[in-house]
């Protein structure tokens, strides 16, 4: 009878091991499903964020060519201001340079 008890005990241990493996597989499948769901949710949030940014850019009404034209206009305005300033100060700069060149100190340094 002890042989039968040993066999029964081995069968019971095998059954318990099978159940443990099945539980582990189910738990792993559940973790994978949860990770997949979380990733899908995160992707959807990111997609919505990008869509909102895109809509914001579209609703601003300015295209790239509009922005480029505005930038060119601002740049031209700044260049004109620099040219006007240079023209206005040209006479003073020339006088100052002539004063420096014509007033050479001929005394040796001490």
UniProtKB/TrEMBL annotation:
An example Gene Ontology molecular-function term: ATP hydrolysis activity
Coiled-coil zones: 7-60
Keywords of the record: Coiled coil, Hydrogen ion transport, Ion transport, Transport
Gene Ontology cellular component list: vacuolar proton-transporting V-type ATPase, V1 domain
InterPro entries: V-ATPase_G (IPR005124)
Keyword RNA-binding found: no
Keyword Ion transport assigned: yes
Family: Belongs to the V-ATPase G subunit family.
Quaternary organization: V-ATPase is a heteromultimeric enzyme made up of two complexes: the ATP-hydrolytic V1 complex and the proton translocation V0 complex.
Function summary: Subunit of the V1 complex of vacuolar(H+)-ATPase (V-ATPase), a multisubunit enzyme composed of a peripheral complex (V1) that hydrolyzes ATP and a membrane integral complex (V0) that translocates protons. V-ATPase is responsible for acidifying and maintaining the pH of intracellular compartments and in some cell types, is targeted to the plasma membrane, where it is responsible for acidifying the extracellular environment.
The protein's name: V-type proton ATPase subunit G
Organism: Guillardia theta (strain CCMP2712) (Cryptophyte)
């Amino acid at each position: 009878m002890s042989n039968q008890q040993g066999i029964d005990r081995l069968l019971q241990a095998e059954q318990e091991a099978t159940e443990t493996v099945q539980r582990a597989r189910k738990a792993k499948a559940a973790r994978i499903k949860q990770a997949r769901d979380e990733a899908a949710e995160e992707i959807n949030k990111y997609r919505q964020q990008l869509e909102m940014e895109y809509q914001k850019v579209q609703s601003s009404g300015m295209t790239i060519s509009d922005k480029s034209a505005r930038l060119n206009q601002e740049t031209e305005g700044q260049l004109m201001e620099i040219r006007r300033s240079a023209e206005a100060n040209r006479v003073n700069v020339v006088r100052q340079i002539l004063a420096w060149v014509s007033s050479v100190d001929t005394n040796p340094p001490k």
